[in-house]
């Protein structure tokens, strides 16, 4: 159970948002925290602590007026911690290599692989050919709808018809190096984890998976460890003191090393 730090970038700034509030229209989001530091600062911070496997997420779409500023922040983070961070947000087979060349260890993909509500096998093959299975992370971020949790795309705004379940995970596990799962309904709210999602990830054997969403205390981490059977890595954003929260970054780092 490893701590995987994050660098979320929106409107040209490193920030923490309420995940479910993100909207491409007007580049809007409900902010929890907007940092005065740039991506390079956080990349250097994570490098000093040896926190490999964290992720950068670009939250504006490619057509946004802020997209280039987001990419500039991402490049600063990658330069500060070359080979130590993954990157996601608008990744496809054409731009993925550029981010790897800039120092990303992996690229993280959702929307390009899920089209018309389902897994697009052709696009998945394109991604594997572009970067290789060993440098591909599939983001299975999800929201609750009806009888379960469904994968969401386009910066968590659009539901697919693909349910997050054991069958989906087994279908995809041979196509990537690991999974990243944001529980979007609790993302940025610091009100506790989605226990069903955590338990589902705990059922994955032999495949790295990282959970993000709602962690607000060490009790939440203990619950995630129990439900995830000690195998699920974790991300904390808004609750960390480096992002304006109350959980001490140093203590979280120590928890992840125990």
Automatic annotation (TrEMBL):
As recorded in UniProt, its EC number(s) are 5.3.1.16
Question: Do you know which CDD domains this protein is assigned to?
Answer: HisA_HisF
Q: Which GO terms describe its biological process?
A: L-histidine biosynthetic process; L-tryptophan biosynthetic process
Q: Which InterPro entries match?
A: Aldolase_TIM, His6/HISN3, His_biosynth, Isoase_HisA-like, RibuloseP-bd_barrel
**NCBIfam families given in the database record:** hisA_euk
Q: Which family does it belong to?
A: Belongs to the HisA/HisF family.
Name of protein: 1-(5-phosphoribosyl)-5-[(5-phosphoribosylamino)methylideneamino]imidazole-4-carboxamide isomerase
Provenance organism: Ruminococcus albus 8
């Amino acid at each position: 159970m490893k701590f995987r730090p994050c660098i979320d970038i929106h409107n040209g700034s490193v920030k923490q948002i309420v995940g479910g509030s993100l909207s491409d229209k007007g580049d809007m989001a409900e902010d929890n925290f907007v940092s005065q530091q740039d991506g390079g600062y956080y990349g250097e911070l994570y490098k000093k602590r040896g926190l490999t496997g964290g992720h950068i997420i670009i939250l504006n779409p490619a057509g946004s007026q802020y997209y280039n500023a987001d990419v500039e922040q991402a490049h600063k983070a990658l330069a500060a911690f070359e080979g130590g961070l993954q990157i996601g947000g608008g990744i496809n087979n054409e731009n993925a290599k550029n981010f790897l060349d800039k120092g990303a260890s992996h690229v993280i993909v959702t929307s390009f692989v899920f089209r018309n509500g389902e897994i697009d096998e052709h696009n998945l093959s394109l991604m594997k050919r572009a970067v290789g299975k060993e440098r591909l992370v599939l983001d299975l971020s999800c929201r609750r709808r009806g009888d379960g949790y469904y994968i969401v795309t386009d910066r968590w705004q659009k539901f697919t018809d693909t349910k997050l379940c054991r069958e989906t995970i087994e279908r995809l596990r041979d196509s990537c190096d690991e999974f990243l799962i944001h529980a979007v309904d609790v993302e940025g709210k610091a009100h506790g984890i989605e226990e069903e999602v955590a338990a589902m990830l705990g059922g994955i054997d032999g495949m790295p998976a990282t959970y993000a969403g709602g962690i607000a205390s060490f009790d939440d981490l203990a619950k995630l460890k129990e439900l995830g059977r000690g195998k699920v890595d974790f991300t904390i954003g808004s609750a960390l003191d480096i992002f304006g929260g109350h959980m001490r970054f140093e203590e979280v780092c120590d928890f992840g090393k125990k």
